Amino acid sequence: MLLCRATTVSLLFFSTSAAAKPFAKIPWKHRSKIIQESQAALLDYLHTTRALPFIYADLISRNSHQCLWSVVSKIPFSPHNFSCSFQRFLRYHPINELDFLLESIGLICDDESETARDILPKNTFFISDWKRFDVVCALGGMGFPWKKLGLLCRDDCSVFKVDPSHLERRIEEIKGFGFNGVSVISIGLAFPQVLYSNADGLLGDLKILMLDYDLLSGVDENVDALLEVCEKIKLFYDLGCEMGKVGELMGRSKHIFIEYSKEHLIGKIEYFCRLNVGRVQVGLLLLSRPEIFGFDLGDQVISVSGFLAHFGMEEEELKSLEQNYPHVFGRNKLENVPSVMRAMDIGEWFFERLQNGDPALLTAHTMPSGEDLDKHYEEGLRKLENKRTRAYMKTKLDFIHSLGFGENRFAVKALSQMHSSRSELQQRFDILLSCGVEYSRLCAILKFAPRVLNQNPGQLEKKIEFFCNEMGASLQYLDVFPGYLCHDLEKRIKPRFRFHKWLKEQGYCKKNYSMATIVATSEQTFIARISRMNLAAAKMWEHLQK
């Protein structure tokens, strides 16, 4: 495939396209031999025919299975003399060497992008014609693992625009902070910007954490182990923590970067980000209260009212919340607490309690047996157990609770009226959020009209757009008329609204009818109302509907 247009550079390590196994179509008993022979033939081609230094030709041939298979698949398979067939193919069919090179360093190319346009030449086959190849070689010569060089393009490809001599000087400058060679390589792979721009704030933080607080003593002295630690550190900068300002904070919490996996840290970060508070605040909270990472925030069941009281909510305020958000109260899992708080619009209050109080309150809540049991919910669960689709229904019920609905009659009602898979329901919920509907309002809408999430995702967006732009209504009106989202846009909402608008312009309609009155009434009632205004207009409407 020619690099004849601008391409997007993506990390092969995390690409789903890399999941397709090359050589899978070769019979297994011949597969190992064919792979070895094709790699040897490619090595010979790159080194002997294309005069590429042996070390680079070897690295490319051993680490480009996808591209190699794309060539092998064009050659008629034969267990005998395959190497000769491969060499003959290369003799008459030159390959795009850049594809092989990029895959070998952990990159794939697809689609259009401004990012890669400056470094990937157009209409170029050969590595020797790529001016940036010397940078790749220089980085490999400095000790950067060849297969991980693609990580340097995580955000952009600026590092490949740097002169090799500047890279050498920059690495010496980084070592001047006190880092050894392994540390410099790991830091560079996790934070490529240190190799081509001023990142003294970041390096200062890392010096405090790794050297002053001696983090390195708890990590194996190899690139993979230290890179894993740097990836965990990067999570907090990705939240928005200011480089050069959090070194001490990280140092005092250094054990979290050693004891917990990256997935564990991500899980906790996402948990508190679901409160919809500032991401920087989440990062600073977790760094200042590292004990939170040791809490099990999973399947423990809580009483929502008891949990809020446990966090110090006043009785009067609690009663007010129970009256305004009855669908949230009852039992729920601790893992759903962020959604529970957002569903009552008290995410910031809860986060402040965590910041200023004892985070251990999260797991210290004990619920007396029998507290907040809902008979309607229990009855609904018994009916669910008798259904053949109980596993499917249980998944939907878990989704409803994950939104913030407690174990109560409203959850049972929603379960009976939502008729799509969990992933589809989540997609539609997220679309409505992206359209500007507030989280707590959306949950209240679903309390009254769960069928909203049965609508086509594209139609939901169009209904909201028409609602706000042409009808001139506020999204808050959905609190009064949530059923609007359940009506057909083209067959009911648009024609009725526009006809009523025309009636007013003509002076036939003297009253201001509500949107619910216009859209939700039956066709018979709608025609009768128009007839009272003007009989000819009613006949015109009936004609238009035919």
TrEMBL record:
<feature type="signal peptide">
    <location>
        <begin position="1"/>
        <end position="19"/>
    </location>
</feature>
<dbReference type="InterPro" id="IPR038538">
    <property type="entry name" value="MTERF_sf"/>
</dbReference>
<dbReference type="Pfam" id="PF02536">
    <property type="entry name" value="mTERF"/>
</dbReference>
<dbReference type="InterPro" id="IPR003690">
    <property type="entry name" value="MTERF"/>
</dbReference>
<dbReference type="GO" id="GO:0006353">
    <property type="term" value="P:DNA-templated transcription termination"/>
</dbReference>
<keyword id="KW-0732">Signal</keyword>
<keyword id="KW-0809">Transit peptide</keyword>
<comment type="similarity">
    <text>Belongs to the mTERF family.</text>
</comment>
<keyword id="KW-0806">Transcription termination</keyword>
<keyword id="KW-0805">Transcription regulation</keyword>
<protein>
    <recommendedName>
        <fullName>mTERF domain-containing protein, mitochondrial</fullName>
    </recommendedName>
</protein>
<keyword id="KW-0804">Transcription</keyword>
<dbReference type="GO" id="GO:0003676">
    <property type="term" value="F:nucleic acid binding"/>
</dbReference>
